[in-house]
Specification:
It is a single chain. The protein has 135 residues and is mainly α. It contains five helices and no strands. The relative contact order is 0.13. The chain has one domain. The longest helix has 32 residues. It is elongated, with a radius of gyration of 19 Å. Helix content is 82%, strand content 0%. The protein binds protoporphyrin IX containing FE (HEM) (2 copies). One protoporphyrin IX containing FE binds next to helix 1 and helix 2.
Length: 135
């Protein structure tokens, strides 16, 4: 599966969960887990969708297995981070290490995405025809 297709599908699933979570907080008048809801939406919907747009705009990277790996890692770490942060806010401090590790994985995965972006832009520059010499 193309990395962008994976991004768009996962982003939609995550935002459906995030919206249900938000509505549940509203109905119950218990907003204690809102940071987890916020980050599920921001990492799982906004960021994933943005990755998807970037990959879709760069078909050579979109087919790259490293790009799919980057997306899978992001999905897994976002799920762990969201559940971990929710548990911490529900009074379970034992979930803190899981949330902390997931956040470091997210950082490393963003650096991997950054590397794919910089590598791509460098290649593109190298393949641009040089300006015709002025005569
Ligand atoms: C129908 C959908 C949604 C509902 C019902 C909902 C509901 C809520 C509720 C009840 C809170 C807690 C507010 C507070 O106590 O301060 C909250 C916080 C938040 N939500 Fe949502 N949400 C929804 C969708 C989204 C989406 C799609 C995003 C991001 C793209 C998002 C991002 C946030 C953020 C960043 C916060 C934290 C805001 C703050 O710092 O006060 N939410 N949401
Ligand atoms: C691994 C990545 C991230 C970590 C560890 C992280 C951590 C945090 C922490 C500790 C807070 C304070 C929460 C509180 O006071 O209860 C926070 C708030 C916030 N972060 Fe992040 N963040 C991350 C990524 C992002 C990203 C990618 C966005 C936006 C696209 C974002 C947007 C926000 C917003 C809007 C708030 C205020 C709402 C809230 O308190 O939940 N964060 N973040």
């Amino acid at each position: 599966m193309k990395a962008s297709v994976l991004c768009f599908r996962a982003a939609v699933l995550m935002v459906v969960c995030g919206i249900i979570w938000g509505i549940a907080m509203g109905i119950s008048h218990d907003h204690s887990t809102f940071p987890a809801h916020a980050h599920l939406n921001l990492l799982g919907w906004v960021s994933l969708f943005l990755f998807g747009i970037y990959y879709h705009l760069h078909p050579a990277i979109d087919d790259n297995r490293l790009a799919s790996l980057q997306v899978w890692i992001w999905i897994a770490a976002t799920v762990v981070l969201s559940i971990g942060v929710a548990l911490v806010h529900l009074g379970r401090p034992s979930a803190e290490p899981a949330a902390a590790i997931a956040s470091l994985v997210i950082l490393a995965d963003m650096l991997l995405f950054g590397w794919l972006v910089f590598r791509r832009e460098k290649k593109q520059l190298a393949h641009q025809p040089s300006a015709a010499p002025a005569d």
